[in-house]
Write a structure and sequence with these properties.
Radius of gyration of chain B: 20 Å
Largest interface: A-B, 43 and 44 residues
Number of helices of chain A: 10
Distance between the termini of chain A: 230 Å
Strand content of chain A: 15-25%
Oligomer: heterodimer
Structural class of chain B: alpha+beta
Largest sheet of chain A: 5 strands, mixed, barrel
Number of strands of chain A: 14
Strand content of chain B: 15-25%
Number of strands of chain B: 2
Order of helices and strands of chain A: HEEEHEEHEHEHEHEHEHHHEEEE
Radius of gyration of chain A: 69 Å
């Protein structure tokens, strides 16, 4: 009877065997898949799965490997990674230990940018409500840039020519490379601490997306956001807006344009001041003019005493003239009245009666007018006056009854 | 001496108020003349501050937690 020699593995032995087999025969691979069940452990290690339509594989990326990662791993992200297949004995699981990972499609950097942008936006770093107004006139400007770069030359040149009243405090930093972001952020903070500037310009000249990358870093965005002084972002670029631009209180596309903002402020202020002066002159001249007009009016109304005397004299003259007229008039009236009276008198005169054939008898010698027959007796002498001439006669007979006279 | 920003902005506000008061025409000539004189003075000093050419360009340094300013030589920068 042949003894069947049988080898009995322990679990650890078989696991080790599998481990050796897998690790040796597959070893290091490039792998494409979609991330799911992503977890970042407090140790700094990342644990997740990679899957496609049909299969899934556990994945681990240890802290040492993921430390320099520019973008964030998240569920649903399609990635290409490099790693080695490994068997994790304690759980009886095979998995892939990832050394390098990059997003499929988008470049890693671009993805990182998009992810950070989204995060900062959610946290309100781009909010219009947080943006500070620029000062009416910044008399002292802080510039965070490289003193060896073109940006600083451009800015200083334009300020020298157009706004020489502006003092400049430069904070020299690297504007590209790995340490640039940290230095830029620190520069912004230090200018805030220094405090003797009214405005900060964060700037560098144009360059490739790579060159401008520090201005897309979170540390720079946060420094701008936290700056108490208003910040202008002036990073030379053609296509993409940097995160610095989005956080800054104002952004322009070239360093020169940042300097021009200040020059324009100066020019518009000078114009405004000239306008103010003009308005002041107008107002004061207007007020003086109005007062002059009032004065002329009042002078006109205020006559001199000699003028008033003349006025009185004239009044007297007028009254006298009136008086003369009235007197003449009343004299004329009186004359008229008297002549009519004379006419009436004439009409009443006995002489005029006599002219009509009547006569007047007077008893002599008294010459009393005889009106009654009892005044006379026969024998009396009577003087009779006619219209023309007179005669004396003696009374022969007297009749009591006038009817007997026969007249 | 360059004007400080707060002083300048304060002056500008004051000037604007004077211009409005004077345009309102509700004050006596004596007051107007006083305001006018003050206004013109402020406008002139503000204009002067903007025309100032005495600018400084300095480099901010920080050593042992202390700030210092060094002169920055920009004499090679041409006025275009």
């Amino acid at each position: 009877m042949q003894k069947i020699s049988r080898h009995i593995y322990t679990v650890s032995e078989i696991t080790q065997a599998i481990k050796n087999l897998l690790e040796n025969s597959i070893g290091e691979v490039w792998l494409e898949g979609e991330i799911s069940n992503f977890k970042a452990a407090s140790s700094g290690h990342f644990y997740f799965s990679l899957k496609d339509q049909n299969s899934i594989i556990m994945a681990a990326m240890f802290a040492g490997a993921n430390r320099g990662l520019k973008f964030k791993l998240e569920d649903g992200l399609k990635v290409i990674c490099f790693g080695k297949v490994d068997v994790y004995g304690p759980r009886g699981q095979y998995q892939i230990i990832i050394e390098r990972i990059e997003p499929k499609g988008l470049g890693a950097q671009q993805l990182a940018f998009e992810q950070l942008k989204k995060k900062l936006e959610t946290q309100g770093l781009f909010a219009a409500s947080h943006k500070k107004p620029l000062p009416q006139m910044p008399f002292a400007v802080g510039i965070v840039t490289s003193t060896r770069g073109a940006a600083v030359r451009d800015i200083l040149q334009i300020l020298k020519k157009g706004a020489s009243c502006v003092d400049v405090v430069l904070r020299d930093v690297r504007v590209q490379g790995g340490q640039a972001a940290g230095e830029i952020a620190k520069g912004i903070e230090e200018l805030n601490d220094f405090g003797k500037v009214d405005l900060i310009i964060v700037s560098r000249g144009g360059g490739s997306t790579e060159d401008l990358w520090p201005f897309n870093e979170e540390v720079v965005a946060r420094a701008i956001y936290n700056s108490r002084l208003p910040v202008i972002s002036a990073v030379g670029h053609q296509i993409n807006t940097t995160l610095s631009d989005l956080v800054a209180d104002e952004f322009v596309e070239t360093p020169s344009a940042a300097a021009k903002i200040i020059v324009d402020k100066k020019i518009s202020l000078l114009t405004e001041l000239a306008d103010f002066k003009h308005e002041l002159n107008f107002s004061i001249n207007d007020q003086i003019g109005q007062l002059k007009n009032r004065l002329t009016g009042l002078t006109h109304m205020l006559k001199s005493p000699s003028d008033r005397l003349l006025e009185k004299q004239q009044q007297v003259d007028e009254l006298l003239a009136g008086l003369n007229y009235n007197m003449r008039h009343s004299l004329e009236l009186a004359a008229e009245r008297s002549s009519s009276l004379i006419q009436r008198l004439e009409a009443l005169s006995p002489l005029s009666i006599l002219s009509r054939g009547y006569s007047l008898s007077m008893l002599l010698p008294q010459e009393t007018v005889v009106k009654d027959i009892f005044q006379i007796t026969p024998g009396d002498k009577i003087r009779t006056v006619l219209h023309k001439g007179a005669f004396i006669s003696a009374v022969e007979e007297v009749f009591n009854d006038e009817r007997k006279t026969g007249i | 001496m360059t004007k400080e920003k707060p002083v300048f902005e304060e002056d500008l506000k004051k000037l604007q108020k004077i211009v409005e008061e004077l345009a309102g025409g509700k004050i006596t000539l004596g007051e107007s003349l006083k305001k006018y004189e003050e206004g013109i003075k402020i406008a002139q000093s503000c204009s002067l501050a903007l025309a100032e050419a005495q600018r400084k360009v300095e480099l901010l340094m920080k050593k042992d937690g202390k700030f210092s300013l060094e002169k920055f030589d920009d004499s090679d920068i041409e006025e275009k």
